Amino acid sequence: MGESLHTVTALPTERQPGCPFDPPTELIDARQHGPISGYTHPGGKPGWMITGYDLVRSVLADPRFSSRKELMNVVDFELPPAPPGEFLLMDDPQHRRYRKPLMGRFTVRRMRLLTERIEQITTDCLDAMERTGPPADLVTAFAKPIPTIVICELLGVPYQDRGSFQEQIDTFMGGASSDEELIAAYTATQEYLAKLVAAKRANPTDDVLSELTDSDLTDEELKGISLVLLAAGFDTTANMLSLGTFALLQNPAQLAALRADPALTDGAVEELLRYLSVAKTFMRTALEDVELGGQTIKAGTTVVLSYHTANRDPERFTDPHVLDIRRQDTGGHLAFSHGIHQCLGQQLARVEMRVAFRALVDRFPTLRLAVPAEEVGLRPETADIYGVKSLPVTWGEES
Amino acid sequence: MSSTPLRVDRARCIGAGMCALTAPEVFDQDPEDGLVLLLHTEPPTAHRAAARMAAGVCPSGAITLA
Predict the structure, then answer these.
(1) What number is the average pLDDT over the span A252-276?
(2) Residue A230 above 50 pLDDT?
(3) Is A230 in contact with A169 (CB distance < 8 Å)?
(4) What is the pLDDT of residues A49-76, one digit of tens each?
(5) Does B52 touch chain A (CB under 8 A)?
(6) Are A329 and A83 in contact (CB under 8 A)?
(7) What is the pLDDT of residue A176?
(8) A47, A85, A396, B14: which has the fewest Cβ within 10 Å?
(9) What PANTHER family would the database entry show (chain B) (predicted)?
């Protein structure tokens, strides 16, 4: 004690040029001063920035911190509660009511049964990429279609509806859209999901959404749940696949090791999850005064949890800023969060990434960037999920 | 070292599957509701380290080494 409190004065919006995989410098600096820093939300409200692994984890496990959207104290107007079914922004018991009917459908075993189908989808994407390239944009040829096809099949979104849906989700998650674009995309998505839910009620098919119509959930709730599952299913894994490939290409020794030894695949996926943490930050609001890291978080104050910086905490991970696919200490990384909201689809994401990274490195032994690394377009820090906008790659003989 | 019996709390479990992933010889998930199933209350020595790790990574604190 006795040290002055470190304060993050501005919203960290920039990563260091040339370090597209590292958290913004200001957050790494904050972590060096201590696990908790003073912070002002972009809307002007006072808050806290938590960057230490242990503290982030303890807040996520602490029922004195709420996920409720309407309690988020970040702007000077009141936020509405989360729409029905959007259970990420709710606390128990409401959260559990929605999560419960889904839990049995995303188990380790069920997801492993999808391995063969995911391998087929991946093979199809790689075949198409090989037929039309090189070069290719790895995002549109590989990273997006694989998780998109998988989650649509699982949920029961018809094949022909995927294209427009994906565009709308990109608008939500890309971090670069105007309010008008966001509202238009939201409205179109709501209208589409309303039709989809009605169609499943009328003619149930063999998928998760049809199964959910056989419960006490209302159409509004089913729409909300579908939106959560689709958005989470499309965007997170897609960005892990493309940014993860970029990270491997920038770490050629790691890529070579992975290519040479299939037994390293599972560990490589966990390390990429830790190292990249594409779901960078989440927020929680204190329901009562809480002592945390020597500070008092006043009731009603919203804290920002930097998963990415916590996953780079030197007190938890040896040489945290080094990508090391043989690392033995990735267990307990926070890429899928912790506590009651930990990612429902994480076992699906693991199977997708294990299959897709393996197949990609096996198929293209000479895969490399088709542009200089500094020309790869990155999502802005305002995006909920970090990633590349496109990833031009090539393969075969050097030209 | 004496063995410590494991306990699971299905009311706390959130079906994330970390236990079944980390220590599949000791934990499984109910195929219907996804909740934790304890296969051994006193796992064989070979699986004890994995069981302890599973308890440590459980997101909802549903596994205890009593």
Answers:
(1) 98
(2) yes
(3) yes
(4) 999 999 999 999 999 999 999 999 998 8
(5) no
(6) no
(7) 66
(8) A396
(9) FERREDOXIN
Provide CB contacts within 8 A for A192, sequence distance 6+.
A161, A164, A165
ipTM above 0.90, yes or no: yes
Domain span at residue B15 reads 6-59
CATH number given to A7-394: 1.10.630.10
The answer to whether the CB atoms of B15 and A344 lie below 8 A apart is: yes
φ, ψ (nearest 5 deg) of residue A271: -70, -40
Does residue B66 fall inside a structural domain? no
Q: From the CA of B24, how many Å to the nearest CA of chain A?
A: 10
Whether A108 sits inside 8 A of B20 (CB atoms) is yes
CB within 8 Å: B60 and A104: no
Q: Which of A107, A311, A330 should we substitute to test contact with B (largest number of B Cβ atoms within 10 Å)?
A: A107
The answer to whether residue A170 scores a pLDDT higher than 80 is no
Kind plus residue range of the DSSP H or E element containing A148: helix A145-155
Q: How many residues does chain B have?
A: 66
**Cis before residue A23, ω within 30 degrees of 0?**
no
In which residue ranges of chain B is pLDDT below 50?
A: 1-2
Taking the model in full, what pTM does it have?
Answer: 0.94
> Pairing between strand A46-50 and A36-40?
antiparallel
| Mean of all residue pLDDT scores within chain A | 93
In whole angstroms, what is the distance from residue A87 CA to residue A351 CA? 24
Closest partner residue to A109 among B31, B33, B57, by Cβ?
Answer: B31
* Per-residue pLDDT at A2: 41
Q: Are strands A136-137 and A281-286 parallel, antiparallel or unpaired?
A: unpaired
What pLDDT score does B1 carry?
A: 42
User: Tokens 């491997």 appear where?
Assistant: A248
For residue B14, the domain's CATH number is 3.30.70.20
pLDDT range class, residue A279, cuts 50, 70, 90? very high
Residue B65 lies in a domain: no
Of A99, A331, A342, the CB nearest to B53: A331
Query: In this structure, is residue B37 part of a structural domain?
Result: yes
With respect to residue B1, please indicate whether it lies within any of the assigned structural domains. no
Interatomic CA distance for residues A281 and A274, integer angstroms: 13
Domains identified in chain B, total number: 1
CB A166 within 8 A of CB A192: no
Q: Are A299 and A287 in contact (CB under 8 A)?
A: yes
